[in-house]
Each structure stands twice: as structure tokens, then as C-alpha cells.
Design a protein that fits this description.
It is built from 10 helices and 8 strands. The protein has helices at residues 7-15, 32-44, 72-82, 100-110, 125-133, 146-153, 188-201, 206-209, 211-215, 219-232, and strands spanning 2-4, 23-25, 59-63, 90-94, 116-120, 137-140, 158-161, 180-183. The protein has a 6-stranded parallel β-sheet, sandwiched between helices. α4 links the parallel β4 and β5 (116-120). α2 crosses α5 (125-133) and α3 crosses α7 (188-201). The longest helix has 14 residues, at 188-201. The radius of gyration is 18 Å and the shape is globular.
Length: 233
């Protein structure tokens, strides 16, 4: 038996001659029960974010290690394009890493200081939940893994690039146009256009955004498949 995290990998194995019935996709998961509990609490207690001066503006969030492979500079440049004539979005960067100083220098150069914040590392899941929940879109311009599951768990849409050959398995959780979107890899203009389109045209419901987590990306779904394999083995 072969156990995989994504359907794309399943298709590749079938092309290579693996038996269809012997391939099982179990997806991936995080701390499902606790995150669902935090999500339900946040749903009942909605307060506007006070992190930014212009708290009415949508928030774009990046969360993760600040490394070159994550291409966070693309996100900063796309925010500069979006806010070129008028401030339309705030940018929240959560995390630390070797690229922090470079990214701060770039932000200082091309963004308005009141519209972006380097929040630093956060390890308290309650705080992370609140920050992600209050964000409008979580953007991972380089590649995306479990961050997709993390953001969707709190009902926040996901954006990442469209070159699935270079993506991690969890990119499959993005249903383009429904719970987020894919943009042309390395294309700042396409990213900024799609962010604007989403903000201006999508009225999303947080419960429907996290639907795929309840259906597939949770340990109960994984257990069901593994139990079946063990019982039939």
C-alpha cells in the first residue's frame, strides 16, 4: 500500500505503473480540535484589529520563517503596487528568519510605515489564531505547506503560486476562486491584481473557507483511511 498527502502525487504514481487501488491519499493535518475550538470562539467574539492605524483596511498576512525560498519580497512589492495611488491594504508579517533585515529595508523603501508590521515570532496558538482570523488573505508567494492548513483552519483564504511541480502537497487545499487563489509564479503584477480582485469581489464566509479542513485535512479523516487499511490488511 502507498499512502500519500496529495492527489497530484497519486496521478504521477499511476502514470508510473502503480496500482490505483493500492494508492491512498490521507492529506495532512494540524491540531484540528484545538484550532476548531479557537475558531468557534473567534466567531462569537469579532473585534476589529487594532494593530494598524487604518484598521478598516484589509490585512494581508504572511506567517512563517523569513527565508529566501518564501519570496516574501514579492508580497511586499505587490503591496507597494496596490497602495500606489491610495492605501488599500495593510501588510502583517509574522515570523523571524535570515531575511528579516533585508525585508525590513525593502519595506522601509517602498511602503508607508503605517501600513506594514513585522510582528516577530509568535508561539502562542491563541494569538496566532486571532492574527490569522482577522486577516483578509494569507499570502505565501514562494511555496506553501502546512501554512495553508493553518490559515484555512481559521477561515482565512490562501494565496500562493501556480507552479504545482514546486509546491508542497498542502497547496492542493487551495480551491482556486473559492477558498483562495493561485497566481502566476514570481509575477508581482499578477499577484497584486488577484489580491485586489479578491478584496473587491469576494464576500467570503469563514465557515465555508474552512470547509475543506472539516472534510479532508483533519486527523479523523486520516484515521478512517488508516483503520480501513489495517483492517483490510
Amino acid at each position: 500500500e502507498n499512502i500519500l498527502y496529495e492527489n497530484r502525487a497519486k496521478k504521477i504514481l499511476i502514470k508510473l505503473g502503480f496500482v490505483y487501488e493500492k494508492i491512498h491519499v490521507i492529506y495532512n493535518s494540524l491540531n484540528y480540535d484545538y484550532q476548531l475550538e479557537l475558531f468557534n470562539k473567534l466567531e462569537k467574539d469579532i473585534k476589529k484589529s487594532t494593530i494598524f492605524n487604518k484598521k478598516e483596511l484589509p490585512i494581508l498576512v504572511f506567517i512563517g520563517r523569513l527565508t529566501k525560498i518564501k519570496k516574501i519580497d514579492l508580497l511586499i512589492k505587490s503591496v507597494a503596487l496596490i497602495n500606489n495611488n491610495k492605501e488599500k491594504v495593510n501588510l502583517l508579517i509574522i515570523g523571524d528568519g535570515p531575511q528579516k533585515e533585508n525585508l525590513q529595508l525593502l519595506s522601509n523603501k517602498i511602503l508607508n510605515k503605517s501600513n506594514y508590521l513585522f510582528y516577530g515570532e509568535v508561539f502562542d496558538e491563541k494569538k496566532i489564531a486571532e492574527l490569522i482570523y482577522k486577516s483578509t488573505i494569507c499570502v505565501s508567494p514562494g511555496n506553501i505547506g502546512l501554512t495553508a492548513i493553518h490559515a484555512l483552519s481559521y477561515g482565512t483564504p490562501i494565496a500562493s503560486h501556480n507552479n504545482l511541480k514546486l509546491q508542497m502537497p498542502e497547496a492542493e487545499s487551495i480551491i482556486d476562486g473559492e477558498n483562495g487563489f493561485l497566481f502566476e509564479q514570481n509575477d508581482v503584477i499578477d499577484l497584486s491584481n488577484k489580491i485586489l480582485f479578491w478584496i473587491e469581489n469576494k464576500k467570503t464566509n469563514k465557515k465555508s473557507i474552512r470547509k475543506i479542513i472539516d472534510e479532508k485535512y483533519n486527523p479523523y479523516f486520516q484515521k478512517k483511511i488508516l483503520d480501513k487499511l489495517i483492517l483490510n490488511g
